Amino acid sequence: DAGVIQSPRHEVTEMGQEVTLRCKPISGHDYLFWYRQTMMRGLELLIYFNNNVPIDDSGMPEDRFSAKMPNASFSTLKIQPSEPRDSAVYFCASSLRGYNTEAFFGQGTRLTVV
Amino acid sequence: DAKTTQPPSMDCAEGRAANLPCNHSTISGNEYVYWYRQIHSQGPQYIIHGLKNNETNEMASLIITEDRKSSTLILPHATLRDTAVYYCNVRVARGDSGNTPLVFGKGTRLSVIA
User: Fold this and answer.
1) How far apart are CA B110 and CA A85, in angstroms?
2) Chain A to chain B, count of Cβ pairs less than 8 Å apart?
3) Would you list the DSSP string of chain A?
4) Fewer Cβ atoms within 10 A, N terminus or C terminus of chain B?
């Protein structure tokens, strides 16, 4: 398996524009996580899914952020409208169900909102 | 919030053992200790995890104190490529009913020096 795949790797957009980040988890994994990383706040959990169902979205900073998982092999994180303070690296991770499993991370999407 | 405390930075000479401490004094009986590392600009990478016994794999060793309130990650022969931020996490194990996501603290920035 190629691991967790995120696209795009880099995104530069203007304030107010809609941004969509994409993630393909490892095949067969039941859990999918979205994280955001900034220098100030470190790695923050935004939301996670189990079997395509959102379990906890308490980390989503504002209503401008939304995430979907329409099927087991694809998830999106959307920001509308984007703001400069949304600039960060966004990571997606996936893991198997079970008590003794590790999470595998993608390479991240570096988002810059100007 | 992260339930772990780590020193912000450490140095280690190349070829020597790197010992990274982690305090998790409020750990519960059903929580595992996980270690990840993040090399600059990449996604976090799983290293090792354990419940109460010491663990060893091809990357590192994990020593957990008998009271489970602290642990040490040991890289036996550090190389320049081990320079990274190392994160210690605790994660609830819920058996086959599922698991909980990783919550990251600030980690320890390990610099391996030639």
Assistant:
1) 28
2) 59
3) ----EEE-SEEEE-TT--EEEEEEPPTT--EEEEEEEETTTEEEEEEEEETTEEEE-TT--STTEEEEEEETTEEEEEESS--GGG-EEEEEEEE-SSTT---EE---EEEEE-
4) N
Using CA atoms, how far apart are residues B47 and B61, in angstroms rounded to an integer? 9
To the nearest 5 percent, what fractions of chain B are helix, strand and coil?
5, 50, 45
**If you ran DSSP here, which 8-state letter would residue B21 be given?**
E
Query: Taking 60 as the threshold, does the pLDDT of residue B95 lie above it?
Result: no
List the single residue in A50, A56, A108 with the smallest CB-CB distance to B43.
A108
**Is the Cβ of B63 closer than 8 Å to some Cβ of chain A?**
no
Amino acid (one-letter) located at A28:
G
For residue B14, give the amino acid letter: E
**What does the alpha-carbon distance between residue A52 and residue B88 come to, in Å, rounded to a whole number?**
28
What is the pLDDT confidence band of residue A84, given thresholds at 50, 70 and 90?
Answer: very high
Of A4, A50, A99, which is closest to B93 when you measure between CB atoms?
A99
Please say whether the beta carbons of A77 and A46 come within 8 A.
Answer: yes
Output phi, psi for A56, to 5 deg: -145, 115
Q: Which chain B residues are closer than 8 Å to A89 by Cβ?
A: 41
Q: Do B93 and A4 touch (CB under 8 A)?
A: no
Confidence of residue B53 (pLDDT cuts 50, 70, 90): confident
